[in-house]
Description:
Blueprint: H1 18-23, H2 45-59, H3 69-98, E1 102-106, E2 110-111, H4 116-122, H5 126-135, H6 140-146, E3 151-152, H7 156-170, E4 175-180, E5 188-192, E6 195-199, E7 211-213, E8 219-223, E9 226-231, E10 237-242, E11 245-257, E12 264-274, H8 280-284, H9 288-291, H10 293-299, H11 312-337, E13 351-356, H12 363-374, H13 379-387, E14 390-393, E15 404-406, H14 407-413, H15 415-435, H16 440-446, E16 449-450, E17 456-458, H17 459-466, E18 470-472, H18 475-485, H19 487-492, E19 497-499, H20 506-512, H21 515-525, H22 546-571, E20 580-585, H23 594-609, E21 621-626, H24 634-651, E22 660-663, H25 670-679, E23 682-685, H26 697-703, E24 707-710, H27 716-723, E25 728-730, H28 735-744, H29 748-754, H30 756-766, H31 779-787, H32 793-812, H33 814-826, H34 833-845
Parallel strand pairs: 1-4, 1-13, 4-12, 13-14, 14-18, 18-19, 20-21, 20-23, 21-22, 23-24, 24-25
Antiparallel strand pairs: 2-3, 5-6, 7-11, 8-11, 9-10, 11-12, 15-17, 16-17
Amino acid sequence: MALDPTSDRRSVGESPEMATYVTGPHFEPTHERAKVPAVGPGRDVDGFVRQFMRELNYGQGVSLARSTVNDQYLALAHTVRHYLMQGWIQTGKRRRDAGDRVVGYLSAEYLLGRQLDNALLASDLQEIAREAMNACGLDLDILRAQEIEPGLGNGGLGRLAACFVDSLATMDVSCIGYGIRYEYGIFKQTFVDGRQVEEPDSWLALGSPWEFPQPDRATRIDFGGHTETYTGEDGRERVRWVPSWDVQAIPYHLLVPGYRNGVVNTLRLWSARATSAFDLQLFNQGDYAEAVRARTFAENITKVLYPEDSTPQGRELRLQQQYFFVAASLKDFIRHTLPADFDLHQLPERITFQLNDTHPVIAIPELMRLLVDEHDFEWEQAWDVTRRCFDYTCHTLLPEALEVWPVELLGRLLPRHLEIIYRINEDFLAEVREAFPGDELRARRMSMVQEHPVRAVRMAYLATVAASKVNGVAELHSRLLRDKVLPDFSELWPDKFTNVTNGVTPRRFVRMANPGMSELITEAIGEGWVTDLERLRELEPFADDAAFRERFRAVKVANKDRLRQLLHHRDGIELPEGHMLDVMVKRLHEYKRQSLKLLHIVSLYERLISGEVDPATITPRTFVFGAKAAPGYHMAKETIALINAVAKTIGEDPRVEGRLAVAFPANYNVTLAETLIPAADLSEQISLAGKEASGTGNMKFALNGALTIGTDDGANVEIRELVGGDNFFLFGMAEPEVAALQAKGYVPSSFYQQSPQLKRTLDLIASGAFTGGDRSTVGAVLDDWLNTDRFMAMADFDSYLAAQARVDEAYADQDRWSRSAILNVARSGFFSSDRSMRNYLQRIWDLKARS
């Protein structure tokens, strides 16, 4: 008997009427949804079902009865995409006809999250889609869960970029987001014996229905080789780059819909392909590996997000990635987006490129190369155009995060660009010497080319020199950026520096992630707050309304139930009921101080098992971590292993059952965040003061009714100022105190000697209590804490425990806690990414939004 190739397909009920949706007459819509143009197929259930069945039958090639859940999801995604298409086409035409000035957002990361829910929300199709799927005998929630989010970012930087392009579409600002289409995104995290193991993130394995490949707009990107001087037809000496190898950059377009305004912007991601697929002669000779070597080598460029850079090969691949996507983006805009006869001297009137951190900074010498070498600009003309085309956002205060590329690597991979950087630096240092005559030490400090420990190019300096504006991402961060990271530059150009505090999109992280609270807000203050988040201020009087507080608590309980169900099915984690949910989710890095949170947990556990504290007297708490450590970051990985060891020990100890629990679900991502954040009671934002640029997780938690325990760091400062000190649990040293202690000479072991509770906590860990009696396992972590502790967790430990005691006291009065939580929501409207974008438009880009 022949095997049925579709026998593994999951069957669902198919009503006889479904056939009419494939062959029936065209349906004309009888009404429009509010604020959304009636574009595409009919905007009612019948029209949606008809389009869905077309996609399933003719797109996926299956009947409903023979379709898999993935077939159904892909058909649904294509259906929703179809509704966005007319808006995308019309938006592009309108902007081309108007000659709009474009924001070119250059970012190596876009942590987008799932697209289906966002597209349904933006196009106001949620109810229609649910009813349509019901009519087909399908469950929309099952299809939503089928989507794999594209892990095209590492954390806050990529999520911020996604929020910003969402806001620009909602505000009807002409924007093209440029980035990389990584075949494998940020790795999938699993735990083996409590230790992180990285697995490939195969987000493309089942298809990506949201993207449009456009291979006919491929562009060639060159690498390597050498430069040579020649005399041009006009008799002038010129330089040409003679590369030794190249790749093709293939654009993939993703739609970025505005919120119910018919506007759809573009995210253009680049994928690398070999210029020739394979060597047919070698293939026919049987040397299959060598025949496809060039293709494999080329495609490595966009294979993985942030390849491990602890090896020379990894560092080179990172630079290849960065140049690849910015070179493709600049060429694409000049050749395919601008009119054919456009005068490039007017380029700043048509685009402003925003450099999202240092990753895209190589775009500066690339634009110079294009203008000087390929379009015959004089150097001074090219530099004038370039300086008016770029702006730079710095996202860090950590010296190691400000990229520095060895001259040897740049010269080997991008020889012409290194020559251009040298020329830019030479001209710049002449300007410095003119402004500060006789101050040669200043010139050396400000040089883009460092001499020690290896000769290398400081990309942040290059960006600062070339950019029209340089901004930090929170008030404190921007001040420290000016005063401590780039003080010589801010003295030379004080007007170049500004601040734009980060924000998050309220569409995804409030309206979509927290539907219960969103409905409560709308009932209280009416519609419109989703695009005007400052209107949340109207909630303030409701903080004193006992009935509203009770309903607000009910929403939080429902959100916890939703999280409990998700973690049960996703991870097999059983969260206890009735606990305070104390959450710390962010990239695992020593400066973010997951170690300090861990020490608090161990301290509380030690006090309980020693009998110092009666378990019945403490607030029951569940601590939830979510974090990935970079594959080569040893100390971060050791911290994860210790957190999981502590979680296991506490979970198995009957002495603390029902009072303490620790959960660390693997592979924290945007999808999990959308359920976890609305459920949280307490938000942990405990980085060492002066180290966190801004944070956006802190904003998401506050907007969803969690109270913050945190240091005066990053945007915590602004959150505390807005929500009020009574509704924020402040602890720890301020940045000047940190600087003073560092200058004095920080000795972490002295705090171990001075603090009895810290000593008992560390001693318990050192005893092997959490590692099966194996003391050696925790040796590296303890040695670092006691002898290095670069981010001063030991110094802030006692202050942190005192703040946690205030948390317990406040949470015991649920009415008081609910009032504070409501005020956090009401006073956090400032942290909308829409406001951030208005700041960029006014302070940096000199543009106006249409809405």
